[in-house]
Amino acid sequence: MNKLLTLESLDLKNKKVFLRVDYNVVADGKIIDEFRVKASLPTIQYLLDQNCSIILASHNGRPGGKVVESMSLRPVARLLPRLLNRDVTFLDDCVGEAVEAEASYLRPGDIMLLENLRFHAGEEDNNPDFAKKLAGLANVYVDDAFAVIHRANASLVGVAKILPHCAGRLVQKEYETFEMLKQKPPRPYTAVIGGAKISDKIEVLDELLKHVDALLIGGAMANTFLAATGVNMRSSKLEKSSTSDALKIIKKAAAKKIKLLLPTDLVVAKAINAQQKGKVVAAGELQPGDMALDIGPDTMKAFDQVVAQSKTVFWNGTLGMAELPAFAKASSSMAHAMISSDAQTIVGGGDTAAYVDSVELNTHFSFVSTGGGASLELLAGKKLPGIAVLLKK
Ligand code: 3PG
Ligand code: MG
Q: Residues 67-71: contacts with CB within 8 Å, 24+ apart?
């Protein structure tokens, strides 16, 4: 395994650290999820123990290189003192003379948070001058921004090329977890994949077939798989253009003797709203106007049995429309099956992490990733630019 440079690989005593984090958690001026902010605390604490001063930097949203007030990171600067029990200074830009002056005054134990990096086009353009300005603020670079590590942005690759650098605790834990899944997962290894689209996950499914013993498919993605096998899915959401990919996955799994489970029953409704109660039907018996919005109890029983016999379970993608309680039963059942199994349990980021967080189960899994896209790209075997710069040469 390519080894990451970790916090232990640098002499961090008394250093001024540029700490890239992913605080992409503010929408319309409010924090919608504290999970990623809390996930950055172990690294911050480690740096404080080393007597460092810390410059926190993050993007938020996609402002496209200009200032968009509703995407400001200021709300995070109000949350951090509560979590850290110490003051955090907020700067209303991330580069420029005023920021340089503030950075130069930092003393050991001081923490400041810069304004949204993406308010400057140089961040997403990976502009070398912008990276130089950021790097000029500090003397060491630590990357703990796992959720955005698949982007070749200035603060992720540019700054790492200039300053002594390493991964923070979160990036280390995320990387080691996904490498373990690719290289030596305790067997049997089961992957549970849901969510809306196959097209987003085709490379991951393909890669998973090299490693797993069982693949359980739910969510709207299962609609496309069922349609590919000839089931009339009526008004259900599906991707017609991906049915041939779905068939290829089914055939590949069969050839490798991998257990691939599709729903045998579904919860359907004629409309999507909080008033719908949903009705259970067999997978071949949808009526005109029916939309499959969750997988049914027989399917869940079969899924739960596979999970109970596994030593490793990876779950990405909710199994139904989990935002509505009537269609969250399969996702809830999966969460509990994983928690009560003896397997090591890993939850992919994005919607699935948000779901287990919303039902307050996140602390019961072996690991919940902070990255949606990033974790899927890692699992798909892609080379991620933010990881590449953190590997030992
Ligand atoms: C995320 O939340 O997915 C990450 O912060 C990356 O954001 P992006 O998809 O806008 O690059
Ligand atoms: Mg994203």
A: 67/119, 68/119, 69/29, 70/27, 70/28, 70/29, 71/26, 71/116, 71/118, 71/119
Ligand 2 center to 392 CA (angstroms)? 27
Asked if residue 293 lies in contact with residue 269, where contact means CB atoms within 8 angstroms, the answer is yes
Confidence of residue 1 (pLDDT cuts 50, 70, 90): low
Nearest CA to ligand 1 atom 6: 148
Task: Enter the pTM of the model.
Answer: 0.94
Token digits for 265?
């029953």
Residue that has been written with the tokens 């498919």 in this structure: 217
Query: What pLDDT sits at residue 116?
Result: 98
Digit-coded pLDDT (tens) for 30-71: 999 899 999 999 999 999 999 999 999 999 999 999 999 999
Angstrom CA distances, 362 to 73, 248, 309, stand at: 25, 34, 22
Give the distance (Å) from ligand 2 centre to CA of residue 275.
30
Contacts of 82 (CB under 8 A, 6+ apart): none
Tens-place pLDDT, residues 197-237: 888 898 899 999 999 999 999 999 999 999 999 999 999 99
CA angle centred on 133, ends 131 and 139, rounded to 5°: 90
What atom of ligand 1 comes closest to residue 59's alpha carbon? 5
* Residues annotated as part of the active site: 36, 197, 350, 373
